[in-house]
Fold this sequence. Notes:
alpha/beta, 27% helix, 14 strands, Rossmann fold
Amino acid sequence: MMWTKLTIDTTVEAVDLISAFLDEKGVEGVMIEDHVPLTEEDKAAMFVDIPLVDGVDDGTAKVSCYIDDSFNIETLRADIAAELTRLEAFIPVGSKNITLSNTEDKDWMNNWKQFFHPIRLYDDIVIKPTWETVEDAKPDDIVIEIDPGIAFGTGSHETTKLCIGQLKKYLKPGDMVFDVGCGSGILSMIASRLGAGFVHGMDIDELAVRASEENAKLNHMGEDKIKFSCGNLLADNYIGKGTTFQLDRSTIKETQHLDVDRQYDIVVANILADVIVPLSAVIGPYLKDDGYFITSGILDVKENDVTDAMKANGFEVIDVVHMNDWVSVIGRKK
């Protein structure tokens, strides 16, 4: 099917009224582009770790929507033009230009698969999609099969590579590992294959947890070795539903002694610096003394923020590794 993209050049002031008009006409969704700067509250909520490009707010905006063949495009276009003329008597509506373009209805949920091929890391670790075979397999390879679906993580990003390298360096056979922000479960599964006695992966996204569980099954890993749960340590200070690991529901600000049922030799968190910084204040009770806090997902410009936070929360920074613009910081619990 071919879709028609309809774009209206207008003003920020008129965006809401135009969006409401399109909704009345049966359009099920709109995309708005403008130059209105994000507030500090917006930026904090987004956990953005990539520098934002600030444009000049000139008051202009674009409202776009995608129309299928159930609409009469020319009739809709004429109706929009008439509505813009009516609104112009009350508010600025901009140039009122309406442009049309066609886009093919592709299988976006699956087309990305053509770009995901087996990845070899550190010579003996292979991450492969379920639909590919490993052509250069070696007898001692650790092979992880994965179907990422809509969960983040295929193993190709520098941050994942950094965490894998640190797990190879610090994980000892039998260690207990806590993977905070497990995504598709890659780090949890690799930790298990590297010899961890037990791995607990956690994510705030239920879909990510579901994907991790399915990927563990693909790799024949049972719940006696690896388990996933949904929870948000920063929001609730507890590990969420679907798990037997429960904490005192008091917040970290109210008590310094949490009733933690299980402590780990290693906590690994491949997230963002702006999450790792507050996480370092609550993760200590989950670690055994001298346990390792392996972190990545950190842009080099945020390295000092993370190391300072670790030091302020009872960790000795013992290792910092760079890969292009990304950094892995490892702390040891004192």
